């Protein structure tokens, strides 16, 4: 009589962490292909694919039982040299377990594999600190939101020194056109403000902002990202 071990038949094999990263290639772009990664509750599988156009794509992170844990929609703009992040969603039952971080690392892998110069996104207020911890910095390139953000920082007055700086920036930009140098000053100031909010566990402002992570910033902070890859069981280095 032949005996079957039903446990072995219906139990999926454990995913192997630190496997070499595999890609599939489509229309001049490289996408992650079935990459195991670790999160706080266990191990899942990353897979990326094209969605509604040749530039638009999604990375999904699923459990070993094929349950969707989270996804990231984005665009690989290879002709422009950057990855444009759009939307990250993590299942409410597994939030704050490192899944958002895993999805960001997947984007970094595809950015490097496709030889792109930067990763950009338009962050909701509640996600600004998450992106800043990952290395993104403000990249406001339009004058419209600046007075609103600076006014909020000034009026909220969480930090007296930074509120005074916001007031000074408001005075300077109201008197003249906001040129490149002024934009750079504002972005540097907002970086300082966000980092202070992170270190003192305070909320940031209630406005969406553009943020960017450049290849140079990644390379200069390589140890930080490589430690994250190690933490999540991913065989990749920047």
Spell out the key features of this protein.
238 residues, alpha+beta, Aminopeptidase, 2 domains, two-stranded antiparallel sheet, 8 helices, 10 strands, 37% helix, 26% strand, globular
Structure, explained:
By secondary structure, the chain is an alpha+beta fold. The protein folds into two domains: 12-123 and 211-238, Gcn5-related N-acetyltransferase (GNAT) (Aminopeptidase, 3-Layer(aba) Sandwich); 146-207, no CATH class. 37% of the residues lie in helices and 26% in strands. The strands form two sheets. It has an eight-stranded mixed β-sheet. A hairpin with a 2-residue loop joins strand 1 and strand 2. Helix 3 packs across helix 6 (180-199) and helix 5 (160-174) packs antiparallel against helix 6 (180-199). It is globular. The model has no long low-confidence stretch (mean pLDDT 91).
Q: Estimate what percentage of residues fall within beta strands.
A: 25-35%
Give the CATH level 1 class of the largest domain. Answer: Alpha Beta
Task: Calculate Rg over CA atoms.
Answer: 21 Å
CATH fold label of the largest domain: Aminopeptidase
Largest sheet: 8 strands, mixed
Compute the number of strand runs. 10
Give the terminus-to-terminus CA distance: 55 Å
Order of strands, main sheet, comes to: 3-4-5-6-7-8-10-9
How many alpha or pi helices? 8
CATH architecture assignment of the largest domain: 3-Layer(aba) Sandwich
Spans of at least 5 consecutive residues whose pLDDT stays below 50 are none
In percent, how helical is the residue content? 25-40%
Q: How would you spell out the order of helices and strands? A: HEEEEEEEHEHEHHHEHH
What structural class is derived from the secondary structure elements?
alpha+beta
Estimate the mean pLDDT confidence.
91
How many discrete structural domains? 2
